[in-house]
Specification:
Length: about 210
């Protein structure tokens, strides 16, 4: 029987890509990438496939909406059109409105810089509560943001939400954040958590890992 460390390594090697990476976000502790992650978390929060949400995020960023100011200044129709090009069609009009309102809040409250949200929130609970004040971000969106941002906000790590824990359990990995974090380096942990999320969403990921062990 494979050990948890072996399972984690295979999972990382085969499925260890964060959603930010997939969306083309070079995540750093700077205003632009942090805002882009918030946009991605907003899109992933809807009842729509992660593939479509990521594609829609890429289209928004390709259109130049990579900062809160740029998103705010874009017209509602421009946001709708970008979402449509990413096939984010069932929720495009509502989400275009939410992205505009969210950008306005980020600009007004944190001057476009989510590092100020981090400083205000302090710990992961505080950060999550502040994130949920953003239109379009509920508990699910806040969890997505915290899962991905822990690589650049290490004081939030190790962070594992219920979705990632379900994926870990399906693979026979520990479900607690600290136990899971012991299996890989700090740098790899956000990738491992993202891979666990993928395992929670797709039985094919679980079968693929099991077949490779």
């Amino acid at each position: 029987m494979a050990s948890a460390t072996q399972i984690a390594r295979v999972l990382l090697d085969r499925h260890g890509r964060t959603y930010a990476e997939e969306a083309g976000i070079r995540l750093r502790d700077t205003p632009g990438p942090l805002y882009q992650l918030l946009v991605l978390a907003t899109l992933l929060s809807a009842r729509i496939s992660a593939t479509i949400a990521v594609a829609a995020a890429r289209e928004l960023f390709r259109a130049g909406y990579r900062s809160a100011a740029a998103m705010h200044d874009a017209s509602w129709q421009d946001r709708v059109d970008a979402l449509g090009r990413g096939h984010y069609r069932r929720y495009d009009e509502r989400t275009a409105t939410l992205l505009g309102k969210g950008a306005e809040l980020v600009l007004d409250r944190w001057r476009g810089d989510l590092r100020r949200l981090h400083a205000e929130g302090g710990d992961v609970g505080g950060v999550s509560r502040l994130l949920q004040q953003t239109p379009g971000i509920g508990p699910t969106g806040a969890a997505i943001f915290c899962r991905e941002v822990q690589g650049v906000w290490p004081d939030l790590a190790p962070y594992v939400d219920a979705r990632a824990a379900r994926g870990a359990e399906r693979l026979g990995l520990p479900t607690s954040a600290h136990a899971l974090a012991r299996l890989v380096s700090k740098e790899d942990f956000p990738r491992l958590v993202a891979a666990c999320v993928r395992a929670s969403l797709s039985a094919d990921v679980v079968r693929d890992v099991q077949a490779a062990l």
